[in-house]
Amino acid sequence: MGISAPVFRTIVVGILAAGAATYAASIAVTHRKHKKAPPRSSPPTLSYPDYALSEHTFLSPSTGRTISWAEYGSPESKNVVIYEHGLPGSRILPVGPNIKGKDIRVLAMDRPGIGFTSLPLAGKTVMETAISDVYELLDHLEISEKVILCGFSAGGPHVLGIMFTHPEKIRATYCLGPATYLDEKINWDDLASGPKSTNWWTKNFPCYTAFDMVLRADKIVDCSKVIESMKNISSKGDATFLSENPVEAKGWQNVNYEAYRQGITGYLQSCMEIFGRVSTNPWPVVGDIVHQKGIEGQKVVIIHRESDHLTPVSGSRDLVRRLKAAGADAEFVFPEGSEGGHFQALNYGMDYILASECA
């Protein structure tokens, strides 16, 4: 005997409700269990006396939350870059030593729940809060000229959201190895086995993914072996790059330490917003790019390395297609060669910005 339609609907609704409850419970349990920060260096850049020009916090005038950022490059430069980090990520910029004294001023922000930046207010997403934080920082620093946006990995969707909100304030937008929509257009063969499995579970069972993060929270926030983990989840090029560049490898370790300064809650919320959605339920603020208005002629450069097996290259091609459909002046830069990988996209991208915007 088959299951009647009413019974089937009841089962489906029950499964969905259980999934939603699991996700809500995971957020609550994580916040309570991991509110105390794990031990880490203080300040995190102590071993790099010239790594950052300065580090700051201020209170948001609209929410009273703390907003944290670090500054790199040259404080007098008019080439102001807002840097949005990946996941995990933070205000620590591993390529900071490479741009010291250059004609560029990079403001790298901790997103909500990361580093010293407060979590979003109840009912607000990380992305919409992060976008508001960016424009409040520009007001706080009295920066009126157009700025350049640079988003690495999961920071890619965030810089697109910043651009869509106030395109008149943006000179150019750069997405480096960006996170992409997890829909049927993805070529899953672009990914290494670890990221492929993670992305599949996140796309199809986001509630389970959130619950799994809670169960593994203690292991996630333990950054003692983060470099080893980074080498294992991506390409051989990334492993070689991190092994041959100990200063930047240490920088990436500090990036992760600061990502979990407040525990795992901010990281988890961001992961669910960026990776727990597909084209039928797209990113907050950004939505489906093809429907965006007011970005005609906006310069957007997507840089994705051939050797990146952590985020799919096919997804970046799809982002360019959607941006062009919305009228943006979108360009896809596809560096050739097998060297490097996902993490070295930040080095390549920052050099590209220096050459293209700061000459």
TrEMBL record:
<protein>
    <submittedName>
        <fullName>Alpha/Beta hydrolase protein</fullName>
    </submittedName>
</protein>
<keyword id="KW-0378">Hydrolase</keyword>
<feature type="domain" description="AB hydrolase-1">
    <location>
        <begin position="79"/>
        <end position="325"/>
    </location>
</feature>
<dbReference type="InterPro" id="IPR050471">
    <property type="entry name" value="AB_hydrolase"/>
</dbReference>
<dbReference type="GO" id="GO:0016787">
    <property type="term" value="F:hydrolase activity"/>
</dbReference>
<dbReference type="InterPro" id="IPR029058">
    <property type="entry name" value="AB_hydrolase_fold"/>
</dbReference>
<dbReference type="InterPro" id="IPR000073">
    <property type="entry name" value="AB_hydrolase_1"/>
</dbReference>
<dbReference type="Pfam" id="PF00561">
    <property type="entry name" value="Abhydrolase_1"/>
</dbReference>
